[in-house]
């Protein structure tokens, strides 16, 4: 039968019962069960029990009757007997004789042990508490604490350097920045720029074409045509670009771009050309040279007509400022004592022209009113010569064909 002190009585002797083996979970938690004669103790795992043969009530029957836990230990605390009367350190960590928390690491020491917290934790009392590394400003930009550790993060436009703490600028232009045309990296960000002829959209990425033609009507002399990223100037038919913006008349007569037959002469005008008959003399006039016709005095009908007519051609632009000198008349023959006067004999029915005499032998044809082409005038400019000493009067005419171009250039 079982005694009160945990013994079984057989005859006059008593045999100790090892409750640490017979009672399931005799000690709870981190406590360790130590059997002794007549009972057991629940002690911390770091504790040890040294048994003595003087324990009251013990029926000592010799060394062979002692349990292993009751063996006499002559060594200091934390050591156990070894060979040849030596003392060997007890590895409490290996023998599970420590009281470290499950989250702690047991470190064996000479004669004892210590409980160490994992990296990133510190020991407060018996507990391991997470260290907030972010308090120590390990990161250049942002620090994110985590249990037992931390991580560094960078602001947009930066990335972690090799030390995982510093932040270095990111070249977004090399990493596919959404700039449509040109990208410039800056510290922590980037900017987009556009080529000439484009402007940056509101999103800061897309480049929109600039319609230069809409900004001014003076970019081109004739017509402005907008194109992606630029504009070009165009000229009307019969003109060519002079530089990039002005228009210059094409002289089809010099470039042989005309279609005049051999019986006609090519006359260049603004924006085109005219084919005129080589012989423009009409009765009663007869041709005496390429452009000169003479009315013979032997013909009665020549008495009231200029003695000679010289054909000339010129071209002026539309909307020319007025008054404007456009053609000078010069006498080719001068006789002593003769007095010369000049007038517009015909072709100026609406008064667009007048004659301004310069001296006795020359005069200037003046444009008096603005004219808009295309238009053609045929003016007979007459010079009347009077010689009072010889009671002689004669006249000659210059038949001037004036072509007004369709444009102001």
From TrEMBL:
SMART domains: EGF, EGF_CA. The keyword Repeat applies. It is found in: Secreted, Extracellular space, Extracellular matrix. Keywords: Calcium, Disulfide bond, EGF-like domain, Extracellular matrix, Glycoprotein, Repeat, Secreted, Signal. The keyword Glycoprotein applies. InterPro entries: cEGF, EGF, EGF-like_Ca-bd_dom, EGF-type_Asp/Asn_hydroxyl_site, EGF_Ca-bd_CS, Fibulin_C, Growth_fac_rcpt_cys_sf, Nephronectin_domain. Disulfide bonds join 173-183. It holds the Pfam family cEGF. Residues 89-129, 130-168, 169-208, 209-248 form the EGF-like domain. Belongs to the fibulin family. This is FBLN4 protein. It comes from Polypterus senegalus. The lineage of its organism: Eukaryota, Metazoa, Chordata, Craniata, Vertebrata.
């Amino acid at each position: 039968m079982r005694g009160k002190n945990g013994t079984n009585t057989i005859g006059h002797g008593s045999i100790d019962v090892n409750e640490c083996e017979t009672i399931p979970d005799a000690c709870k938690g981190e406590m360790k069960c130590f059997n002794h004669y007549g009972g057991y103790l629940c002690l911390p795992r770091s504790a040890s029990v040294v048994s003595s043969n003087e324990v009251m009530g013990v029926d000592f029957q010799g060394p062979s009757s002692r349990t292993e836990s009751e063996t006499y230990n002559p060594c200091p605390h934390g050591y156990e007997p070894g060979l040849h009367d030596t003392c060997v350190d007890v590895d409490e960590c290996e023998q599970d004789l420590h009281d470290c928390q499950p989250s702690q690491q047991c470190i064996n020491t000479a004669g004892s042990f210590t409980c160490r917290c994992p990296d990133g934790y510190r020991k407060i009392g018996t507990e391991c508490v997470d260290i907030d590394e972010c308090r120590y400003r390990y990161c250049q930009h942002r620090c994110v604490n985590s249990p037992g550790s931390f991580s560094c993060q960078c602001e947009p436009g930066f990335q972690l350097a090799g030390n995982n703490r510093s932040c270095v600028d990111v070249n977004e232009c090399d990493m596919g920045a959404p700039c449509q045309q040109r990208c410039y990296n800056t510290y922590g960000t980037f900017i987009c720029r556009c080529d000439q002829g484009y402007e940056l959209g509101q999103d800061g990425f897309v480049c929109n074409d600039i319609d230069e033609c809409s900004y001014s009507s003076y970019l081109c002399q004739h017509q402005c045509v907008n194109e992606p990223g630029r504009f070009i100037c165009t000229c009307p038919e019969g003109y060519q670009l002079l530089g990039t913006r002005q228009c210059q008349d094409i002289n089809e007569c010099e470039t042989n771009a005309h279609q005049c037959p051999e019986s006609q002469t090519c006359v260049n005008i603004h924006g085109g050309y005219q084919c005129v008959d080589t012989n423009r003399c009409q009765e009663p006039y007869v041709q005496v040279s390429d452009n000169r016709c003479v009315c013979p005095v032997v013909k009665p009908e020549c008495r009231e007509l200029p003695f000679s007519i010289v054909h000339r051609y010129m071209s002026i632009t539309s909307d020319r400022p007025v008054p404007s000198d456009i053609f000078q008349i010069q006498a080719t023959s001068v006789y002593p004592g003769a007095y010369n006067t000049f007038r517009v004999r015909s072709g100026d029915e609406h008064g667009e022209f007048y004659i301004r005499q310069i001296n006795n032998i020359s005069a200037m044809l003046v444009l008096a009113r603005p004219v808009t082409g295309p238009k053609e005038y045929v003016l007979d400019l007459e010079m009347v010569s009077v010689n009072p000493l010889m009671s002689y009067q004669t006249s000659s005419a210059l038949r001037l064909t004036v072509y007004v171009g369709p444009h102001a250039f």
